[in-house]
Amino acid sequence: MTSTDQARETTMDGWQGTRFGRPEVGATASISKTLGAREVELFSEITGDRNPLHNDEQAAQASRFGGLITQGGVTSGLLNAVVAEKLPGPGSVFLATRWSFRKPTYFGEEMTATVVVERVRADKPICELRTTVTNSEGEICIEGEAVTYTADLD
User: Fold this and answer.
1) Helix-then-strand count for the chain, H and E
2) For residue 71, which of 93, 92, 45, 89 has the smallest C-alpha distance?
3) According to DSSP H, which parts of 13-126 are helical?
4) Nearest Cα to 86, choosing from 15, 9, 7, 27?
Protein backbone atom coordinates (compact mmCIF):
# COMPACT_ATOMS: atom_id res chain seq x y z
CA MET A 1 0.00 0.00 0.00
CA THR A 2 1.42 3.40 -0.94
CA SER A 3 1.44 6.38 1.42
CA THR A 4 -1.30 7.96 -0.74
CA ASP A 5 -3.47 4.85 -0.28
CA GLN A 6 -2.82 4.89 3.48
CA ALA A 7 -3.75 8.58 3.72
CA ARG A 8 -6.95 7.95 1.71
CA GLU A 9 -7.85 5.00 3.94
CA THR A 10 -7.28 7.09 7.09
CA THR A 11 -9.43 9.98 5.84
CA MET A 12 -12.22 7.60 4.77
CA ASP A 13 -12.19 5.67 8.06
CA GLY A 14 -15.54 6.42 9.72
CA TRP A 15 -14.20 5.11 13.03
CA GLN A 16 -11.94 8.12 13.69
CA GLY A 17 -12.73 9.58 17.10
CA THR A 18 -14.49 6.52 18.49
CA ARG A 19 -13.06 5.50 21.86
CA PHE A 20 -12.10 1.94 21.00
CA GLY A 21 -11.62 2.42 17.25
CA ARG A 22 -12.72 0.04 14.54
CA PRO A 23 -13.32 -3.51 15.84
CA GLU A 24 -12.09 -6.58 14.01
CA VAL A 25 -14.43 -9.14 12.46
CA GLY A 26 -14.53 -12.08 14.86
CA ALA A 27 -13.92 -9.97 17.97
CA THR A 28 -16.02 -11.07 20.93
CA ALA A 29 -16.98 -9.68 24.33
CA SER A 30 -19.15 -10.89 27.20
CA ILE A 31 -20.50 -9.87 30.56
CA SER A 32 -22.13 -12.00 33.24
CA LYS A 33 -24.63 -10.99 35.91
CA THR A 34 -26.98 -12.76 38.28
CA LEU A 35 -30.52 -11.48 37.76
CA GLY A 36 -33.29 -11.44 40.32
CA ALA A 37 -35.89 -9.50 42.26
CA ARG A 38 -33.94 -6.22 42.38
CA GLU A 39 -33.48 -6.04 38.60
CA VAL A 40 -37.13 -6.95 38.01
CA GLU A 41 -38.27 -4.35 40.55
CA LEU A 42 -36.24 -1.60 38.89
CA PHE A 43 -37.37 -2.59 35.38
CA SER A 44 -41.01 -2.75 36.54
CA GLU A 45 -40.71 0.71 38.07
CA ILE A 46 -39.20 2.19 34.90
CA THR A 47 -41.50 0.50 32.37
CA GLY A 48 -44.69 -0.24 34.28
CA ASP A 49 -44.39 -3.95 33.32
CA ARG A 50 -45.91 -5.64 36.36
CA ASN A 51 -46.73 -8.97 34.75
CA PRO A 52 -47.47 -11.47 37.56
CA LEU A 53 -44.93 -13.89 36.04
CA HIS A 54 -42.26 -11.43 37.20
CA ASN A 55 -43.79 -10.05 40.41
CA ASP A 56 -46.27 -12.50 41.95
CA GLU A 57 -44.60 -15.64 43.28
CA GLN A 58 -47.85 -17.55 43.73
CA ALA A 59 -49.07 -16.81 40.19
CA ALA A 60 -45.65 -17.59 38.72
CA GLN A 61 -45.48 -20.91 40.62
CA ALA A 62 -48.87 -21.90 39.19
CA SER A 63 -47.82 -21.02 35.63
CA ARG A 64 -46.09 -23.28 33.13
CA PHE A 65 -42.81 -21.60 34.18
CA GLY A 66 -43.07 -22.90 37.76
CA GLY A 67 -41.48 -19.80 39.30
CA LEU A 68 -40.62 -16.16 38.91
CA ILE A 69 -38.93 -15.23 35.64
CA THR A 70 -37.15 -12.04 34.68
CA GLN A 71 -38.58 -9.81 31.95
CA GLY A 72 -37.06 -10.27 28.51
CA GLY A 73 -36.06 -6.61 28.61
CA VAL A 74 -33.99 -7.21 31.74
CA THR A 75 -32.19 -10.17 30.21
CA SER A 76 -31.67 -8.57 26.78
CA GLY A 77 -30.48 -5.43 28.58
CA LEU A 78 -27.26 -7.29 29.31
CA LEU A 79 -26.55 -7.08 25.57
CA ASN A 80 -26.92 -3.30 25.82
CA ALA A 81 -24.22 -3.31 28.48
CA VAL A 82 -21.80 -5.40 26.39
CA VAL A 83 -22.28 -3.13 23.36
CA ALA A 84 -21.97 0.12 25.33
CA GLU A 85 -19.10 -0.90 27.60
CA LYS A 86 -17.01 -3.43 25.70
CA LEU A 87 -17.70 -4.05 21.99
CA PRO A 88 -17.96 -1.90 19.94
CA GLY A 89 -17.73 0.19 23.13
CA PRO A 90 -18.56 3.63 24.54
CA GLY A 91 -20.82 5.71 22.30
CA SER A 92 -22.45 2.62 20.75
CA VAL A 93 -26.20 2.36 20.29
CA PHE A 94 -28.46 -0.15 18.59
CA LEU A 95 -29.78 0.70 15.14
CA ALA A 96 -31.61 -2.62 14.80
CA THR A 97 -32.07 -5.85 16.72
CA ARG A 98 -33.62 -9.20 15.93
CA TRP A 99 -33.78 -11.45 18.95
CA SER A 100 -35.47 -14.76 19.62
CA PHE A 101 -36.32 -15.53 23.23
CA ARG A 102 -35.66 -19.29 23.44
CA LYS A 103 -35.83 -20.01 27.16
CA PRO A 104 -37.08 -18.16 30.26
CA THR A 105 -34.60 -16.77 32.75
CA TYR A 106 -35.28 -17.42 36.40
CA PHE A 107 -34.49 -15.35 39.47
CA GLY A 108 -31.02 -16.10 40.79
CA GLU A 109 -29.60 -17.38 37.50
CA GLU A 110 -26.28 -16.04 36.30
CA MET A 111 -26.69 -14.91 32.72
CA THR A 112 -23.89 -14.30 30.21
CA ALA A 113 -24.43 -11.91 27.31
CA THR A 114 -22.03 -12.25 24.37
CA VAL A 115 -21.55 -10.33 21.14
CA VAL A 116 -19.44 -11.40 18.17
CA VAL A 117 -18.56 -8.96 15.40
CA GLU A 118 -19.77 -10.34 12.06
CA ARG A 119 -19.27 -7.31 9.78
CA VAL A 120 -17.69 -3.87 10.13
CA ARG A 121 -18.11 -0.90 7.82
CA ALA A 122 -14.96 1.12 7.26
CA ASP A 123 -16.74 4.24 5.96
CA LYS A 124 -19.15 4.51 8.93
CA PRO A 125 -18.89 3.28 12.52
CA ILE A 126 -21.47 0.56 12.00
CA CYS A 127 -21.16 -3.10 13.05
CA GLU A 128 -23.29 -6.16 12.56
CA LEU A 129 -23.18 -8.45 15.60
CA ARG A 130 -24.25 -11.97 16.49
CA THR A 131 -25.75 -11.89 19.97
CA THR A 132 -26.53 -14.51 22.62
CA VAL A 133 -27.51 -14.66 26.26
CA THR A 134 -26.92 -17.98 27.99
CA ASN A 135 -27.71 -19.24 31.47
CA SER A 136 -25.25 -20.88 33.85
CA GLU A 137 -26.00 -24.27 32.26
CA GLY A 138 -24.83 -22.88 28.89
CA GLU A 139 -28.36 -22.99 27.45
CA ILE A 140 -29.23 -20.25 24.98
CA CYS A 141 -31.99 -18.03 26.35
CA ILE A 142 -31.77 -15.24 23.75
CA GLU A 143 -30.10 -15.30 20.35
CA GLY A 144 -30.10 -13.10 17.31
CA GLU A 145 -28.44 -10.22 15.56
CA ALA A 146 -27.92 -6.53 16.11
CA VAL A 147 -26.65 -3.57 14.15
CA THR A 148 -24.84 -0.85 16.07
CA TYR A 149 -23.63 2.68 15.45
CA THR A 150 -20.73 4.09 17.47
CA ALA A 151 -20.63 7.86 17.99
CA ASP A 152 -17.44 9.91 17.89
CA LEU A 153 -16.77 10.82 21.53
CA ASP A 154 -13.49 12.74 21.15
Assistant:
1) 5, 5
2) 45
3) 37-47, 52-55, 57-62, 72-85
4) 27
**What pLDDT, in 10s, does the model give residues 115-139?**
999 999 999 999 999 999 999 999 9
CA 133 from centre of chain = 8
CA–CA separation, 93 vs 98, rounded Å? 14
CA distances from 80 to 28, 64, 72 (A): 14, 29, 13
pLDDT at 12: 63
The candidate with the shortest Cα–Cα distance to 130, out of 70, 72, 83, is: 83
Model confidence, pTM? 0.88
